[in-house]
């Protein structure tokens, strides 16, 4: 029985870890409301849950849902990462006598340098911020959501460059490039959102173009050039390393 449990433990932990951002996103969506029209009797705005328009916000039903979601936040987006941090700690200090747990959590640290064996939790924290905690900001402040996401993404790039946690240069390049592309996409989304909020006569004064697409095209070209140069440098580095070996 024990052998069977230990046999499925790696797959179970990997599946649990992979589901954390998706499930957390569903939990946090309970706090995201969209305003639709006004109450004819009071004149106040009416808001409905963005994930389920059948639920009106600021009602007893929504209050019960928020209470449940608050408990699930403690259990899932906070509790599960804490669980994996504890498992990593225990696995590192379990000694050679018990190899089952270190083997089960190897997927969390195998691609990182030993000094950064907890880095996957940093990655998970970034995903939870972008896919979960950002939903605590009201939907009417969508620009603030985007600004926070941009700050998180740029900070992630800086941390990656400074820490250099990966064993393989190819993995490090993929991580930086992915975060860079995400930051670029968020900046474009921020520009489009600002464009949609401005009056027609303000667009040229604010952006310098009649359409935000022109500015987006310039930014896209610059970012694509940076990525191509980075890719060329990466290929050159691989060739140098292969010659050394």
* Major beta sheet summary: 3 strands, antiparallel
**First-to-last CA distance:** 47 Å
Our count of helices gives 9
Dominant shape:
flat
The residue-averaged pLDDT reads 85
Helix content: over 70%
Approximately what portion of the residues adopt beta-strand conformation?
Answer: 5-15%
Give me the strand/helix succession.
Answer: HEEEHHHHHHHH
Contiguous uncertain segments of 5+ residues:
none
Overview of the molecule:
The protein is mainly alpha-helical and 245 residues long. The chain is built from nine helices and three strands. It has a three-stranded antiparallel sheet with strand order 1-2-3, with no helix packed on it.
Identify the notable features of this structure and list them briefly.
71% helix; three-stranded antiparallel sheet; mainly alpha; 245 residues; 7% strand
Topology:
Layout: H1 2-28, E1 33-38, E2 45-49, E3 52-56, H2 60-92, H3 100-104, H4 106-109, H5 119-131, H6 142-163, H7 169-197, H8 200-207, H9 212-244
Antiparallel strand pairs: 1-2, 2-3
């Amino acid at each position: 029985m024990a052998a069977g449990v230990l046999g499925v433990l790696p797959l179970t932990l990997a599946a649990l870890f992979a589901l954390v951002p998706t499930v957390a996103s569903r939990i946090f969506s309970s706090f995201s409301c969209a305003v639709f029209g006004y109450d004819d009797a009071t004149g106040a705005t009416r808001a409905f849950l963005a994930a389920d328009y059948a639920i009106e916000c600021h009602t007893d039903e929504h209050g019960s849902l928020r209470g449940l979601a608050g408990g699930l936040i403690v259990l899932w987006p906070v509790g599960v990462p804490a669980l994996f941090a504890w498992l990593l700690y225990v696995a590192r200090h379990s000694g050679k006598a018990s190899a089952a747990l270190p083997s089960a959590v190897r997927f969390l640290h195998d691609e990182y340098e030993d000094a950064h064996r907890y880095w996957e939790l940093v990655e998970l924290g970034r995903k939870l911020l972008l896919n979960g905690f950002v939903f605590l900001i009201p939907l009417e402040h969508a620009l603030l959501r985007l600004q926070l996401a941009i700050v998180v993404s740029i900070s992630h790039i800086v941390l990656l460059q400074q820490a250099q946690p990966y064993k393989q240069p190819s993995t490090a390049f993929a991580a930086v490039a992915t975060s860079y592309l995400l930051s670029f996409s968020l900046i474009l989304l921020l520009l489009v959102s600002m464009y949609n909020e401005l009056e027609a006569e303000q667009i040229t004064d604010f952006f310098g173009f009649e359409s935000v697409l022109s500015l987006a095209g310039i930014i896209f070209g610059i970012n694509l050039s940076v990525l191509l140069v980075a890719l060329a440098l990466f290929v050159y580095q691989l060739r140098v390393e292969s010659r050394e070996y």
